[in-house]
Amino acid sequence: MTTALSRRALATALLAATLLTGCGGGGQGVRNEGSAGTAQGSEAGGESSAGREAPSSDPTNAARPLGRSVPVRLGIPSIGVDTPVMRLGLRTDGTVEVPPVTAHDQAGWYDKSPTPGRTGPSVLLGHVTVGDYGDGVFRHLSELHRGDHVTTRLKNGTTAAFTVTRVRTVDKADFPTQEVYGDTDRPELRLITCGGPRSGEGYRDNVIVFAALDGS
């Protein structure tokens, strides 16, 4: 039986393919045609020195989930990010929306994932470069380290504060779909952009930041 969670995970797997063209070109979505990889081969793309993520099943590290409210702003002080957050969904043709390529681009929250602070992986994505405009909002995402802080301000006025647990750079062909979008038993955050060497009009890799909600 396909649960609501597994349907969400299948839909969000589209992001791996979307980011192939969405990080520095025209921002066009692409269809899901088996492009998402598995976690088994993801180490081929390398892993940063940020360390391994603490097990999500450890109740001593678990924070109480927040009420549902959409994110409106994202802050990552260590890399100078302070950006509005737009809402991203699925287009009518089955592709995932990406933020538009503009001079003052912003991050986007994928609305088929939980809102930040709810149990499960909340997914935000942004460009690493924005064509002729230069650097994107997530240009320095790969420079994050374990212990760095991320905040998301929510529409209801509350703030969900997260701590980075791991940073990975993976080949897009080996995108760890289950690891990124699979169910968790605590509130977590995923920040995703492109990285690595350029490949044609895009980039070869994805940079993935894993973070967990701070305890009270």
TrEMBL record:
It comes from Streptomyces griseoaurantiacus. PROSITE patterns: PROKAR_LIPOPROTEIN (PS51257). Residues 31-69 are annotated as: Disordered. The keyword Aminoacyl-tRNA synthetase does not apply. InterPro entries: Sortase, Sortase_dom-sf, Sortase_F. Residues 1-16 form the signal peptide. Keywords: Hydrolase, Signal. The keyword Hydrolase applies. This is Class F sortase. Gene3D superfamilies: Sortase. Residues 33-57 have a biased composition (Low complexity). Transmembrane segments: none annotated. It holds the Pfam family Sortase.
